[in-house]
Every structure is written in C-alpha cells, then in structure tokens.
Amino acid sequence: MTGETMSELACGLGLGASCVVSLGWLLTHDGCAHPIGNLLAMIVLVGAGTILLLPAALRLMAGVVADSDEGERR
Q: Is residue 43 part of a domain?
C-alpha cells in the first residue's frame, strides 16, 4: 500500500468513527439532555456522512449520465 492509500483509509476510518460516535450521542439519554451537544453531533454526522458518501454518489451519477448520453446518440 502506498502512503496516499493509507492516509485515505485512515481518513475514511476516522470519518466513519465520527459518524458512529455522533449517531450514538444522538440516540442516548445524555444527548437528549444537551441540545447544544445534539446540534454539534448532528453537524458532525451530516458533514462526515457527506464527505464519506459523496465520492461514491458522484461515481454512480457519472455512470448514469454516461449511460443516458449513449442512449441519446443512437
């Protein structure tokens, strides 16, 4: 593995852990008692989830757009 691949993996694992911890906080009783903590956890959850899922969503959409372009050219 190259250093770049390792750093991407570490970043993905860190963001995944952030998502899990944020969701765990939101679903606990302590989370219900602290609205500011809930806001911060929700911001982290949405931000990390977006960063994690955006590359896959863009690859999927690129394939869909490429398939629709091929259909128009025929």
A: yes
CA distance 66 to 69: 5
The span from the CA of 9 to the CA of 15, in Å, is 10
The answer, yes or no, to whether residue 46 has pLDDT greater than 90, is yes
**Is residue 10 domain-resident?**
no
User: In the prediction, which pLDDT does 60 show?
Assistant: 85
pLDDT at 63: 82
**7 lies in some domain:** no
What's the pTM?
A: 0.69
Nearest-angstrom CA–CA distance, 57 and 51: 10
